[in-house]
Design goal:
By secondary structure, the protein is α/β, with parallel strands linked by helices. It contains 8 helices and 8 strands, in the order βββαβααβαβααβαβα.
């Protein structure tokens, strides 16, 4: 995997798994989990804006794809196959937390222990969108952001509404939200991949779910189909929640 200019490449091991990580910046920690097919130029652009806003950003690479991979149809299709067959991602199961989030929680715990403060930010997008919600369970995430959360794949009414969380994890998320850990979500209203999850989030979290919903049927709010006001809303959310 090639080194990203200005980013420190390392690995992190937890729960029996090791994944590459890229780190840059200073200040409170934010974990940015890439979308399909990986750390594309537009994912990197967004991450560098978070760095420039005064944060230490860690980007794990959890699909084994090279950093800087283009967002081509071919690359998307190849990584979709990996996601479908990997046991780390609960792509079809209902009321199930994806196993990869155990590793991500450990990463958040490690980053928070190093940097201190009220907690770290966690942002997932597309297939990883709901992972930021699951990362709230340990209490080290103080600013969870869900951008176009798309797991489980929205086939059938139940999957369209499912949050990719076990009942036990959902109960903890609800407790943390009611105690003040608000959740920010972003989507295009016509994005079929998101299904009805925002309705579920409103029902389960009430006013503690902050929804940004855009007109249109595009998908990648912060990257390939970037909406500038949404990017600024995320940066403001991180500043509000993470800066003492």
């Amino acid at each position: 995997m090639s080194q990203l200019a200005g980013w420190d490449e390392s690995t992190f091991t937890a729960a029996g798994h090791t994944y590459p990580t890229y780190r840059n910046g200073s200040g409170p920690g934010v974990i940015i989990i890439h979308e399909i097919p990986g750390i594309t130029p537009n994912v990197l652009k967004f991450a560098e804006e978070v760095v420039a806003s005064g944060f230490t950003v860690v980007m794990p690479s959890i699909l084994g794809t090279a950093a800087g991979l283009s967002h081509s149809v071919g690359n998307v299709n190849k990584t979709m196959v990996k996601i479908c067959v990997s046991k780390e991602f609960a792509t079809w199961a209902l009321q199930t937390t994806s196993p990869i989030t155990t590793w991500l929680r450990a990463l958040a715990r490690d980053l928070h222990a190093e940097l201190g403060g009220p907690g770290v930010g966690a942002l997932g997008m597309c297939f990883s969108g709901g992972f930021a919600l699951a990362m709230m369970v340990d209490g080290h995430v103080a600013a969870p952001v869900l951008s176009q959360p798309s797991l489980p794949f929205p086939v059938g009414s139940k999957r369209k509404a499912d949050l990719n969380l076990s009942p036990a994890d959902l109960a903890v998320v609800k407790e943390r939200a009611s105690a003040g850990c608000q959740v920010l979500g972003l989507r295009y209203k016509g994005d079929m991949a998101v299904g009805n999850r925002f309705d579920t989030l409103r029902r389960e979290l009430g006013d503690d779910f902050l929804a940004v919903e855009l007109d249109g049927s595009k998908h990648s709010v912060l990257t390939e189909h970037r909406d500038e006001m949404s990017v600024q809303r995320v940066l403001a959310f991180f500043k509000e929640k993470l800066h003492p």
